[in-house]
């Protein structure tokens, strides 16, 4: 069971809302979000309702202002707890849509997709075990995308407007 607390103002001030499960629309609970406290669990928070827009991966800790979670603004409209996974991680990435072209298998973190595979565009993927985060740039920087178990036939299915992926990290306990 996880717990995340959203605060309208910086430094954990103002109106707050406590959440312990996923929520597709937080708008009725607060107008803006300038600080977050994660008491337990791993979470993905989203800029827009229904798990859309910018995504931010948060672990246990205090985030006294939105820049601390690499936020672009004070807008948080949905959140999802990432279930703990103790087993192995496995994902197949493809250089073309619909699982076409060359396939590479990942079972561990990849700080630079280009250094490891000599390309950095992923058009489709199949996550078979564990949860992963795609990062737009190498070394776990830039826009983030939560990859849950399942098939993603095109990059827009994980919320991206581009196939560009710079690095990939497993969500581990």
TrEMBL record:
PROSITE patterns: CRYSTALLIN_BETA_GAMMA
Record GO biological process: lens development in camera-type eye; visual perception
Domain (Beta/gamma crystallin 'Greek key'): residue spans on this chain: 2-40, 41-83, 89-129, 130-172
Keywords: Eye lens protein, Repeat
Matching Pfam families: Crystall (PF00030)
Gene3D superfamilies listed in its UniProt record: Crystallins
Keyword Phosphoprotein appears in the UniProt entry: no
Keyword field contains Nucleotide-binding: no
One MF annotation (Gene Ontology) recorded for this entry: structural constituent of eye lens
Ranges in coiled-coil conformation: none
SUPFAM superfamilies xref list: gamma-Crystallin-like (SSF49695)
Function, in words: Crystallins are the dominant structural components of the vertebrate eye lens.
Homology family: Belongs to the beta/gamma-crystallin family.
Protein name per UniProt: Gamma-crystallin M2-like
Encoding gene, per UniProt annotation: LOC115576754
């Amino acid at each position: 069971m996880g717990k995340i607390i959203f605060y309208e103002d910086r430094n954990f001030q103002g109106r707050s809302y406590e959440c312990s499960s996923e929520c597709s629309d937080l708008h009725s609970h607060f107008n803006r979000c300038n600080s977050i406290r994660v008491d337990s669990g791993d979470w993905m928070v989203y800029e827009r309702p229904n798990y859309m827009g910018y995504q931010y991966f948060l672990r246990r800790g205090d985030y006294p202002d939105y820049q601390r979670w690499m936020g672009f603004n004070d807008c948080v409209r949905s959140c999802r707890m990432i279930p703990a996974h103790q087993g192995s991680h496995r994902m197949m990435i493809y250089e073309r849509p619909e699982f076409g072209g060359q396939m590479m298998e990942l079972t561990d973190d990849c700080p630079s997709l280009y250094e490891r595979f000599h390309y950095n565009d992923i058009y489709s993927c199949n996550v078979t075990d564990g949860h992963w985060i795609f990062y737009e740039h190498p070394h776990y920087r830039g826009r983030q995308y939560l990859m849950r178990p399942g098939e993603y036939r095109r990059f827009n299915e994980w919320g991206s407007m581009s196939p560009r992926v710079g690095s990939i990290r497993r969500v581990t306990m």
